[in-house]
Amino acid sequence: MKKRHVELVVISDVHLGTFGCHAKELYQYLSSIKPKTLILNGDIIDIWQFRKSYFPKSHLKVIRKIIDFASKGTEVYYITGNHDEMLRKFSDSKVGNFSIIDKLVLNLDGKKAWIFHGDVFDSSVQHAKWIAKLGGLGYDYLILLNRFINWCLNKFGKEPYSFSKKIKSGVKSAVKFISDFEETATDLAIENNYDYVICGHIHEPKIIDKLGKKGSTRYLNSGDWVENLTALEYSKKRWKLYRHSENTELIEEDYFEMETILSENLIKGFLFSK
Asked: Label partner for 129 (CA 20 to 30 A): which of 3, 63, 85, 110?
């Protein structure tokens, strides 16, 4: 396979170690590119929901691929997020081409890019972490259920359906949170004279120019590898939002694994309700 040379790639919110992670698709994408710099912008490994019994080979292959990038000359920055916040005790550590940091400022062709995960703007993460963790667990099982339903829809020739996107679009508070998140990030970027502000966290891929009273900046969000399967790419002074083609068909092995997990949870719920 001929690999695309890309100057800079940003991915975030992969959530390795959870049922919702599209590790196989991410591995396909990483295998198709040769980046000079790779930025992992938070929530790559989901330590909040880490299960010893669930870390498939496909998830491990993504980690190996990232290490392979670093060993072959790619500068890899792992920016910590809320789901992998345990790594913050190792912030500012560097081994070869691999660095763990909390935020990053890069000079891209004479323009300053401010890069961070974005959980610092999320009050539920900062002040009520248990609620955020509970919500993350519920989100993971919602994605699992959604995959099963989309598998069924695919068998009947129907279009896939996203529960979480429907909920986000229908709940005003969720829409307002996303809007407030973007406004806060861009206001701070403009105030500090950054040309680009690059975040993750909210799973909403976007590239948009923002104009404020004190100037302008470009807001970018790398999205996620749970629903949107997106990444940011920078080459030849241009930004691009990469979208991996969605494959809604589940292989048989994944289907039976998912069916077993759902059955076990139903049995546990029945037993503990007695």
From this structure: 63
SS3 content of the chain, % helix, strand, coil (to 5): 40, 25, 30
The owner of tokens 């309700």 is 273
The token pair at 71 is: 């060993």
For residue 267, how many other CB atoms are within 10 A of its CB?
Answer: 10
For 126-144, write each residue's pLDDT tens digit: 434 433 444 445 555 556 6
pTM: 0.72
6 C-beta neighbours (distance < 10 Å), count: 19
How long, in residues, is the chain? 274
CB neighbours of residue 226 within 10 Å: 21
CB contact at 8 A, 215 and 197: no
User: What's the burial of 27, exposed, middle or buried (CB within 10 Å: 0-12/13-18/19+)?
Assistant: middle
Per-residue pLDDT tens digits for 27-51: 999 999 999 999 999 999 988 666 6
Strand arrangement, sheet containing 206-212: 103-108, 111-116, 196-199, 215-221, 206-212
Render 58-85 in DSSP notation, one character per residue.
HHHHHHHHHHHHHHTT-EEEEE--STTG
User: Around Cβ 2, how many Cβ atoms within 10 Å?
Assistant: 6
Phi-psi region of 158 (alpha: psi -120 to 50; beta: other; left: phi over 0): beta
**Strand order in 75-79's β-sheet?**
93-95, 98-101, 75-79, 33-41, 4-11, 230-235, 238-243
